[in-house]
Amino acid sequence: MYIFLLTFPQKYYIRKMARDGVPVIDMQKVEGLGEELVRACVEWGCFRMINHGVAMELMAEMKATAASLLDLPEEIKQRTVHTEQGKGYVERNQGTPFFETLSVDEISSPGEFCDRLDASPHQREVIYKYIKAIRELAGLLGRKLMEGSGLAGDLFDGWCCQLRMNKYHYCPESVGLSGVGMHSDPTFLTILQDDENVNGLQVVDKYSGEFAPVDPVPGSLAVNVGDIAKAWSNGRFCNVKHRVRCFEPKTRYSIVLFVLGPNDTKVEAPSELVDSDHPRLYVPIDIKEYRHVRTSKRLHTGDALDIFSTTAT
């Protein structure tokens, strides 16, 4: 049994819980939702959402659309290749031989992505509807995280978001291996629609250091907290390390929304989260610069934040 004391402006929580799995949070909860989300971000850096408002039918259609686009001929998918790492189409390679991905790099303008892939009217409609629903959910999360932190406002208003569609080409030879190796996300948070039929996501319990499974729950969505959220929260939130393992030779799909950060300002902890007991840990961070540093120095498990520490020399 663990006991945690979580301190935010004007708010104090004592949390006692057994470390028996990541939290499952009902997004239709009226009282205390913000505080519950904050606790999950601090204790785990990961949680599942139920009653989140994204229709199951739309989720199923989005999975089918992602699968159909990822099944397109290679020469068509190559039309969306981007020169910047982490954007556009990423084919299977030596580092990730079972994994490929397509992305809408800025969800406010998905038309170019659809045009390059010659997406059908139905595929476009599904992508547009899904982006609208998942972005609205991200907005709710941002407002509730502010509320739970003793703050007010729309945290993610105007922030850049990316939608990714992933395919894991699992086969008998991949069983026991990683589709994606251990990493933290270079984001504020990640909203994941995982494959309800094929599990594999594992997160690191920050207290034990052991991997904990995040098994799929039909109709739910998972959230991972990233490096930028740790910086914004002045070190309180856990930028959870995680990986995707292959347990059976079945193709796995996932759809991910990355809430990256603001386009035109740097991310820094609000003054309300800085005091004598919690001195400022990080300098203001430009998200593009952060991603570049993280990639160029191959610091994929959150260590890049140390370079942006207020005490870095």
UniProtKB/TrEMBL annotation:
Residues covered by the Fe2OG dioxygenase domain: 157-261
SUPFAM superfamilies, per the entry: Clavaminate synthase-like
Keyword annotations: Dioxygenase, Iron, Metal-binding, Oxidoreductase
Coiled-coil regions, chain positions: none
A family per Pfam: DIOX_N
Gene Ontology MF terms: dioxygenase activity; metal ion binding; oxidoreductase activity, acting on paired donors, with incorporation or reduction of molecular oxygen
Domain of life where this protein originates: Eukaryota
Family from the record: Belongs to the iron/ascorbate-dependent oxidoreductase family.
Protein's job: 2-oxoglutarate-dependent dioxygenase essential for auxin catabolism and maintenance of auxin homeostasis in reproductive organs. Catalyzes the irreversible oxidation of indole-3-acetic acid (IAA) to the biologically inactive 2-oxoindole-3-acetic acid (OxIAA).
Protein name in the entry: 2-oxoglutarate-dependent dioxygenase DAO
Species whose genome carries this gene: Cynara cardunculus var. scolymus
Lineage: Eukaryota, Viridiplantae, Streptophyta, Embryophyta, Tracheophyta
